[in-house]
Amino acid sequence: MAAAAAAAVGGPQPPQPEVPAPGPALDKAATAAHLKAALSRPDNRAGAEELRALLERVLSAGRPLAGAAGGEEEAAAAGAAGGAGGGGAPGAAAAAAEEALEWCKCLLAGGGGYDEFCAAVRAYDPAALCGLVWTANFVAYRCRTCGISPCMSLCAECFHQGDHTGHDFNMFRSQAGGACDCGDSNVMRESGFCKRHQIKSSSNIPCVPKDLLMMSEFVLPRFIFCLIQYLREGYNEPAADVPSEKDLNKVLQLLEPQISFLEELTKMGGAMRSVLTQVLTNQQNYKDLTSGLGENACAKKSHEKYLSALKSSGLTYPEDKLIYGMQEPSAGTSTLAVQGFSGATGTLGQVDSSDEEDQDGSQGLGKRKRVKLSSGTKDQSIMDILKHKSFLEELLFWTVKYEFPQKMVTFLLNMLPDQEYKVAFTKTFVQHYAFIMKTLKKSHESDTMSNRIVHISVQLFSNEELARQVTEECQLLDIMVTVLLYMMESCLIKSELQDEENSLHVVVNCGEALLKNNTYWPLVSDFINILSHQSVAKRFLEDHGLLVTWMNFVSFFQGMNLNKRELNEHVEFESQTYYAAFAAELEACAQPMWGLLSHCKVRETQEYTRNVVRYCLEALQDWFDAINFVDEPAPNQVTFHLPLHRYYAMFLSKAVKCQELDLDSVLPDQEMLMKLMIHPLQIQASLAEIHSNMWVRNGLQIKGQAMTYVQSHFCNSMIDPDIYLLQVCASRLDPDYFISSVFERFKVVDLLTMASQHQNTVLDAEHERSMLEGALTFLVILLSLRLHLGMSDDEILRAEMVAQLCMNDRTHSSLLDLIPENPNPKSGIIPGSYSFESVLSAVADFKAPVFEPGGSMQQGMYTPKAEVWDQEFDPVMVILRTVYRRDVQSAMDRYTAFLKQSGKFPGNPWPPYKKRTSLHPSYKGLMRLLHCKTLHIVLFTLLYKILMDHQNLSEHVLCMVLYLIELGLENSTGDESDEEVTVGGPERCHDSWFPGSNLVSNMRHFINYVRVRVPDTAPEVKRDSPATTSSESLGSLQNSGTAQVFSLVAERRKKFQEIINRSSSEANQVVRPKTSNKWSAPGSTPQLTTAILEIKESILSLLIKLHHKLSGKQNSYYPPWLDDIEILIQPEFPKYSHGDGITAVERILLKAALQSRMNKRIIEEICRKVTPPVPPKKITAAEKKTLDKEERRQKARERQQKLLAEFASRQKSFMETAMDVDSPDNDIPMEITTAEPQVSEVVYDCVICGQSGPSSEDRPTGLVVLLQASSVLGQCRDNVEPKKLPISEEEQIYPWDTCAAVHDVRLSLLQRYFKDSSCLLAVSIGWEGGVYVQTCGHTLHIDCHKSYMESLRNDQVLQGFSVDKGEFTCPLCRQFANSVLPCYPGSNVENNLWQRPSNKSMEDLIKEVEELQGRPGAFPVSISSETNLSKEMESVMKDIKNTTQKKYRDYSKTPGSPDNDFLFMYSVARTNLELELIHRGGNLCSGGASTAGKRSCLNQLFHVLALHMRLYTIDSEYNPWKKLTQLVEDMNSQLGNEEQQPEVPILYHDVTSLLLIQILMMPQPLSKEHFTCIVKVLFTLLYTQALTALSVKCSEEDRSAWKHVGSLKKNTCDAEKSYEVLLSFVISELSKGKLYHEEGTQECAMVSPVAWSPESMEKYLQDFCLPFLRIASLLQHHLFGEDLPSCQEEEEFSVLASCLGLLPTFYQTEHPFISASCLDWPVPALDLITQWCFEIKSFTERHSEQGKALLIQEARWKLPHLLQLPENYNTIFQYYHRKTCSVCTKVPKDPAVCLVCGTFVCLKGLCCKQQSYCECVLHSQNCGAGTGIFLLINASVIIIIRGHRFCLWGSVYLDAHGEEDRDLRRGKPLYICKERYKVLEQQWISHTFDHINKRWGPHYNGL
Predict the structure, then answer these.
(1) Whose CA is closest to 165, among 192, 185, 128, 131?
(2) How many CB atoms are located within 10 Å of the residue 1411 CB?
(3) pLDDT of 496-543, one tens digit each?
(4) What is the pLDDT of residue 653?
(5) pLDDT tens, 156-172?
(6) Which of 367, 1349, 1575, 1755 measures 20 to 30 Å from 1566, CA to CA?
(7) Averaged pLDDT for residues 1097-1120
(8) Could you count the other beta carbons within 10 Å of the beta carbon of residue 1294?
(9) pTM reported for the whole predicted model
(10) What is the 3-state secondary structure (H, E, C) of 1183-1233?
(11) DSSP string, 27-57
(12) DSSP letter at 1089?
């Protein structure tokens, strides 16, 4: 502030930091200060004028597009931007623009520093709202618990600062962009605000000093005007054909800095925003600057451009001259309006004025529609007039013109926290709404544009207060509805429904881009958004004009996407327009409907419902007229889209359920009801046809439609309202009419005859059965569904959930998805809400995710509780909700399984009968359907047909028939009185089959004769049938005494006639001809004749016979009440009944008996007559067929069993032989005593050719192996503390302490000081990139393998592996492999010979070992260099070398030296032994042959390695064996000359490496005693190393003490086996050198604070030696097949020592075990030690530090682990998803992190590509030698890279319901699943990724 004050006085100015040249900066600052002073005087006109001139000059100079015409003063003055082209040199223009911005910044700051100015303004920010604006792909949060509006969202910062524990929130990636609502109490509850925005701020923010922002008020209007001029000049109308996005983008790029500057200003906080608001909304400023009236030519030009832009947008600019001011527009505009709208519907011919006058009722809807549209001129002005009064309005206009550039959008939204601005901007937005949508429709980039529009509108319309205000003041609803109409008008076509020629109805064409690309989405989304506000919705529902227009809009969708059934050939092109149609109905019709419904919840809102229903019915009536509908739907066509019907249905439902309206008061007359039911019924029948494959020629898309119609997102807006509407119609129409309509629609009328044969004129025989099932199923659903007839919301939710769970176990998220949202997303009853969770826990049990070790990862599932199966499983609901028919079967199977398991029912149960919730009184009429003669005749006929085994009937049909009968009995009126009378009055029933309409009494009515029409050929036609003349006519019905005929169709016609008696003459003309031609098929062959059948059955008798038939026994039914009269008095009917057909029949008979005494009596009578066998039991052909089928099935089953058994036994024998291969000696007893041991060769089975035999040199056998490079060993660490994945900048992982790093350091240290060739024998490599060999244990001939590989190569369909790289799968077990390891020919007898204990002395053995090593290549089997075996061994060695990268093989300083190969080969053996040790858990305590042991290929691997090792001979001079076993006379000669590097001292050698070298240098097979000898010798060296290391670790005092103790014992008998003696000797030897000196700096690091006790020393020595003993024991186990003993961890050392033969057998184990007792010195110990120490002494004289470091070898490595992951996934996500890439410093699109070492990498990132390798692949090679495990941050999934392939492994983070959330789509909190992570780690350590994961694909180095 001091600077500003100084400026005002005109004092000296601090130079400005941003501007490079200090001169102008000072000059600018001074000018600014001067102007500020001038303006703060009371009379500031002069100052203002001066400022104006300055700005004019500065800003116009920066205008990149100024002076388009050239030569004007402005352009000349600007200079920089001159030139007729208007562009000038772009560089210069940019510089000038830059300069202009600098000036503005300076002026705003009023001479002070701009940064200080910013800080000063920020101090006055009342930050009550966050308002952070973000663009697409930003990660934000939504909390449903805190949100008032469903669109509420929070930025991550506000979310984490607030308290949302236990809330229902999720993280999401923004699709369109958004803004943070924190602090806005209109949109969210205050409890959810974050800490920063909780403070109600107004109180403590000081008032803004006037002079601080004074300059801004003067400068900014000019600046914004300048911006607008840029926009005006830069805009050129795109030519008609070429989109000019390029030009627009160019202009926008030039404007980038200016808009960014404005954006910066908005971020300065509230004070600056209110200044900007003033500037943007001030109308006077705008008028002064932009009117274009001044003398300034440039301004004029710009104004002209603006006007032309308006004109070209089809907008008029109302000039102030009031051409058509606010008076009534002249006639001219009115016709304009008509023209504008009629253009769209040109298909119907132009509107003629004459037509309009003569409004003829029959003139069709199209005309009327257009007249409606053009009736008010209001519509037209909405579309075509725009007047701009402020900067804000014009800015928005250009923002639209330029198709919503992101920067502009962000600027406009950043201003929203300012309340005044918010209102002004919302009004402006509404004013431009029509224009915006017009632009959108034309746009080429409609997707991005839609997103940007919604980005803005969602911020404005989610706020109820604002929405209400603009609805009232700016007619928002009118605008929206008009614009929606306008949008759809452009794609209307004539409807082809019903009467194609004369139809006057128009529908949208779903093939149009507008619908296909969902371009209308932003509009509809806004509309739904504002309707979610009660105040707005009420206005809508009260405004009759709006409702009319809206219904008009909805009718555009009525009947769209009409399907016509293809009858001849398959359609050529399957259109996919149905997606667009369903989406359009859901979004444009259904969702606004749900929005409106959510406000009609209480009694007071009845009026609204009446309005909607009224206009809905009017629109429907118009529609029926327009399509010329009378009474029959046109055949073979169906539309799934009836939004008007559905509006009507849903408002009716709401009226009855919530508003207590009387249903009849809102229902139309009977005729209208008849019409209303036709189309929904047509859809139900078509569904059955589609599922019966009658529409198969229409392609798959028609099935797609049928499935979408019932799918969970659509069902409650489609099938549910349809069924409800049918239920309403059924409850009000004549039941006989309704039932016969149903059967007629389903085309099964002809099937419903007593005759055994019939002719169906409208349906093929093969479809009859499924259509009949469809019709009955529909009736069952219609009568049992209660969704809208009285169920409460919670009951509905429960029923939906049970239905879904019964089909299949479900995950939580799929349940959320499958249960229809109730009723729409805005209503607040959202799945995931309280009721959802409580219902879920009531009906389902959670099954935690289980792990199938080799299978896919399971998710947490919910499964129905037992009591749900027992009492709530509802097949009707399941059928209604299944998208795939197989799900119904699945539910039944699960139900059957439950009954079997719980012992409730053993057989095959039928779908259970379930009592329904009671009907709402308004719908009681529905039950009349069950009590109408028509239905009873149908049921009777079907029962009879089933009993007589007529064709085309199924158990399913019977099930439905019985279900309907039972429903009828449950819902009978129970008036017994009328049934007594009927007996006396036979004349009453002559016109029909049944006396009355009550099912209870009709059940016992006997029907004697029936007359049927049958084809001539039918068996019923008896030539002597009594002929009666009248029987020829279809409709004639005879007296019941003789015969009865019934025709559904005729009945239905009769009823229809009765209803339409108003204009009966007219109606007859319409109906009759149709009937005649449709229902009698003239001349159809064969001829139909009439026959009379004798029936003599009633429904009851049929049921009893059916019981006999089902049970397969005569007289199986016995009335239960005869034994137990109680049954009738207190019947116990459970609500829920399990069982099959027999139990169903029994239940029905019992209910019938209960309801009437007569029925009871008749049942007893029927049972008393011993019934003769029902139909004569000649087995019909059909039955024979089924019997044969059964028999055949049985036989097939037996055959299968036999095969399986045979297969199992073969497998077993194979397994046994396979076991023999691996451990040949296990089964062969030691036959040492026999003189002649039998020679038995190992026998191998080839899994390709199936032959068995030994492996020979000519035809070697091999093991199937997988070779892979591995760095798992290198990941071992020496500390127990697990490494964590870094989740902040401080935590980084450094790989210093890994095993690989330590070994690397050691090798390079040795190579610095010692001879290279000797160094390469002193260590092992392969900690990183070592080759691991594993096998599945199967063997094959190598020549067979070669031909197998050939066949794979020729196979075109390659699986996920590459044959060229030698990859294949084992032919037997399909395990992945890439090489074959030859088996060495050998016989078992040698095993026995090797193991004979011999009594040779140690000295002899040592000599023998030395001699054997000296012999070059002495293999007992003479392998000449050229046999097949040796060739194979060479090739496999090549494979082994190629498995790993060169850098992991070559460590020698001289490239290609043989020592290098030598080192590599024994290191392969080391790698495999060490890994096996890790697989056993790092120690050998468990003993036994581990599972790996059975399949181990180490034996074969050893042979191959040994063969190659023997090709290299170690110079006998350098052979370490000598140093280990002999004393050298002259020690000094050993040291070599000064210039030549010495050899590595023996104490620095790695003993385990020495062991492998010694063994692999021996001829194979090796004898046991030589092995033991080598181990003993090496143990002495190891022990000495342990002592030296210990001595270095001790402190000086400790050392002298030990030295003293040892020297006392020196002369005892077993001094060589006492560690005190040896230790003191080592100390004294080493003290001679400089090893222990110069410890000043290092001391604290080396010395352990505790003094060493004998116990701790013993432990240290044992721990030092253990790793060697373990490897040696494993080796012995593999070479000689000896089992490993198991033991406790404490005794591991002693057990292994004795197992290796180090411990003398007589050793007693009473006193504490001392490791030294295992020593067996080949030569006097002290001399040998002296010799070894001497080498070190001479080295340490020169390099004591390194000498010491090399002595201390850390031998205790912990097992390798992956990084430890945090509990909550969010911690990883928040840190990594914004982390920048170290290469390009951008935030990567797909960040990933390595779980082995924690490196952050970009997946697929091109920035980090090196030599065509992307970063992940590269990292997998460097970190894991080809195996990489990466966590993909944005997807929470783990991806595995193995060599050239990759696979998605799954996720180790699961949500609270045990589910993965791949790609974080749901955004729920995720928690680590420890078991899964363990599985992952296990697969990594055991190298089994290739075997366990199945879906691999090549990555082509692109990850």
Answers:
(1) 192
(2) 9
(3) 888 778 788 999 998 888 888 888 889 999 999 999 899 999 999 999
(4) 92
(5) 889 988 888 888 888 98
(6) 1755
(7) 85
(8) 10
(9) 0.81
(10) HHHHHHHHHHHHHHHHHHHHHHHHHHHHHHHHHHHHHHHHCCCCCCCCCCC
(11) HHHHHHHHHHHHHHSSS-HHHHHHHHHHHHH
(12) E
Helix (H, G, I), strand (E, B) or coil at 1615: helix
Q: Are 776 and 768 in contact (CB under 8 A)?
A: no
1578 neighbors 1348 (Cβ within 8 angstroms): no
Q: How many CB atoms lie within 10 A of CB 191?
A: 12
Query: Could you report the per-residue pLDDT of 665-675, keeping only the tens digit for each?
Result: 999 999 999 99
Mind giving me the DSSP string for 1825-1874? TTEEEEEETTTTEEEEEETTEEEEEE-SEE-TTS---GGGSS----EE-H
Is pLDDT larger for residue 1106 or for residue 1069? 1106
Q: Pull the structure tokens for residue 1786.
A: 């951008």
Nearest Cα neighbor of 1440 from 1276, 1572, 1329 is: 1329
Tracing tokens 């008028």 back to the chain, one arrives at 287
Residue 840, φ and ψ in degrees, nearest 5: -60, -45
Cα separation, 1838 vs 1795, in Å, equals: 9
Q: Rounded to whole angstroms, how far apart are CA atoms 863 and 1135?
A: 23
pLDDT 10s digits, 321-343: 333 333 333 333 333 333 333 33
How is residue 1290 annotated by DSSP?
S
Place of tokens 């025989």: 765
Cα separation, 1475 vs 379, in Å, equals 81
Q: Average of pLDDT values for 1276-1286?
A: 83
Among residues 366, 223, 228, the alpha carbon closest in space to that of 290 is found at 228
Q: Which helix (H) or strand (E) holds 1088?
A: strand 1088-1097
Residue recorded with tokens 């559904």: 1048
Cα–Cα distance for residue pair 641/623, rounded to 1 Å: 13
Please provide the DSSP assignment of 931-944 as one string.
Answer: G-HHHHHHHHHHHH
Residue type, 1004: R
Least confident window among 324-333, 612-621, 1311-1320, 1438-1447: 324-333
Q: Given this model, what pLDDT does residue 623 score? A: 93
Which pLDDT does position 806 carry in this prediction? 95
Q: Decide the pairing of beta strands 844-847 and 637-638.
A: unpaired
Q: How confident is the model at residue 548 (pLDDT cuts 50, 70, 90)?
A: very high
Average pLDDT over residues 1651-1667: 83
506: three-class secondary structure by DSSP? strand
The total number of residues written for the chain in this structure: 1903
Is residue 1031 pLDDT above 60, yes or no? no
Instruction: Answer yes or no: is pLDDT of 1586 > 90.
Output: no
Give the model's pLDDT for residue 255: 80
**CA atoms of 1878 and 1795, how far apart (whole Å):** 13
Q: Quick count: other Cβ atoms within 10 Å of Cβ 949?
A: 14
Nearest to 143 by CA among 1870, 1867, 1833: 1867
Residue corresponding to tokens 């109180």? 203
Mean pLDDT of the chain: 77
Tokens 């809330």 found at: 167
Q: What DSSP character marks residue 1096?
A: E
Q: Where are the beta strands (DSSP E) in 161-282?
A: 169-173, 178-179
Under 8 Å between Cβ of 1451 and 1307: yes
Classify 1007 as helix, strand or coil: strand
Is-contact 292 300, C-beta < 8 A? yes
Start-to-end CA distance of the chain, whole Å, equals 55
How far is the C-alpha of 861 from the C-alpha of 1547, rounded, in Å? Answer: 61
Q: Does residue 99 contact residue 105 with C-beta atoms inside 8 Å?
A: no
The confidence band for 1075, taking pLDDT boundaries of 50, 70 and 90, is very low
Range of weakest confidence among 482-496, 826-840, 1751-1765 = 826-840
- Cis previous bond, 1382, omega within 30: no
Query: SS3 for 143?
Result: strand
Q: Give the E-state strand segments of 1107-1196 in sequence order.
A: 1136-1137
